[in-house]
Design goal:
Elements: H1 2-23, H2 28-44, H3 48-55, H4 57-60, H5 63-81, H6 85-111
Helix pairs in contact: 2-5, 5-6
Length: 118
């Protein structure tokens, strides 16, 4: 049941984002940035953590989860190191995900022929 719930929640999040991509004139980069920012805001006001505990990976994997991870990293670093934690906390907490994205993007570029979208 846990997998079904994660699948349904993650699918619903992705479907809502796809509607925004298809039905608005906003550029994809702006929509994705907004999603990360919404994840930060939801984490800051305390809504995202209970939601992610209930939904599991369906809530932590999409970009909302990345925003929440950035928020948690900055909060922990600020509590521990003060003002300078703002600059390194988010990257420290999300370094594994960022590194994986870069490595897999590089590998994909090696095996497939990348081209500009026309």
């Amino acid at each position: 049941m846990e997998f079904v719930k994660a699948f349904l929640v993650g699918g619903a999040i992705c479907a809502i984002v796809q509607v925004f991509l298809d039905k608005t004139k906003l550029l994809p980069g702006r929509i994705m940035t907004a999603i990360v920012c919404i994840g930060v805001i939801l984490g800051a006001i305390g809504i995202y953590e209970p939601f992610s505990e209930w939904a599991g990976s369906g809530a932590t994997i999409p970009l909302f989860g990345f925003g929440n991870t950035l928020f948690k990293g900055v909060k922990e670093a600020v509590d521990k190191e003060g003002f300078f934690g703002i600059f390194k906390g988010g990257l420290t907490k999300s370094a594994a995900g960022i590194t994986a994205a870069l490595v897999f993007a590089y590998l994909a570029a090696l095996f497939f022929k990348p081209k500009m979208k026309e």
